[in-house]
UniProtKB/TrEMBL annotation:
Protein family per UniProt: Belongs to the aldolase class II family. MtnB subfamily.
Enzymatic reactions: 5-(methylsulfanyl)-D-ribulose 1-phosphate = 5-methylsulfanyl-2,3-dioxopentyl phosphate + H2O
Organism: Paenibacillus lutimineralis
Domain Class II aldolase/adducin N-terminal: 16-207
Cofactor(s) it depends on: Zn(2+)
Protein origin, superkingdom: Bacteria
Single biological process term from Gene Ontology: L-methionine salvage from methylthioadenosine
Function (record text): Catalyzes the dehydration of methylthioribulose-1-phosphate (MTRu-1-P) into 2,3-diketo-5-methylthiopentyl-1-phosphate (DK-MTP-1-P).
Binding site for Zn(2+): 107, 109
Annotated coiled-coil segments of the chain: 1-28
Name used for this protein in its record: Methylthioribulose-1-phosphate dehydratase
Molecular function per GO: methylthioribulose 1-phosphate dehydratase activity; zinc ion binding
Free-text cofactor note: Binds 1 zinc ion per subunit.
Signal peptide extent: none
Originating gene: mtnB
Amino acid sequence: MAFAQITLEEKQARLAELKDVKEQLAARGWFPGTSGDLSACVGKYAPDEFYFAITSSAKDKAMHTPEDFLFVDAVGEACETTSLKPSRESLIHAKIYRMTGCSAIFHVHTVFNNLISEFYGDQGFIPVQGNELIKELGIWEENAAIEIPVLPNYVDIPSIAKLVPGAIHSDIPGFVLRNHGIYAWGNSIWEAKRHLEAFEFIFELEYRRLALLR
């Protein structure tokens, strides 16, 4: 499907949903400064042919402007004539879409995902067991145990993108960049939001559990 075939109604619907989520997450302080980004696929897509809306680079996500989002292609490049620049991390979003076939990806920076990813960074994953919010990830086993991948954080975004395939696990809809932030995704914008909220609860609870043990 060519981008020109995607209707204006489809584009506007996606942007409206993303604006709503952006407002909710910004109110929680999950986009300090101009950090973080949100994206959502628009129209039908194939593994190597798809388009998505993503937050513009260097924008305060607590504000709403006509320049909050732009549309990019499967390699994270703008697919419309625009003066806006996509998030630097659009390449990571593109790789996640290609690997998972998901519909939306949210990336936020919080104190707890930074602290817990640094604590477990050398281990390469965050071990979690028995946390009630694991169910929100679609895992319903009694006393379930999961391992949330932690990737090293590099300034060079393509270096991170190369590591993404190894961090994709079918039952864990997210991974964390060490001392940086989480990427969470879902089959809809609202599922991605639910997964993100579950991960953030898990991180805070794990941090507080470790603090009690010291």
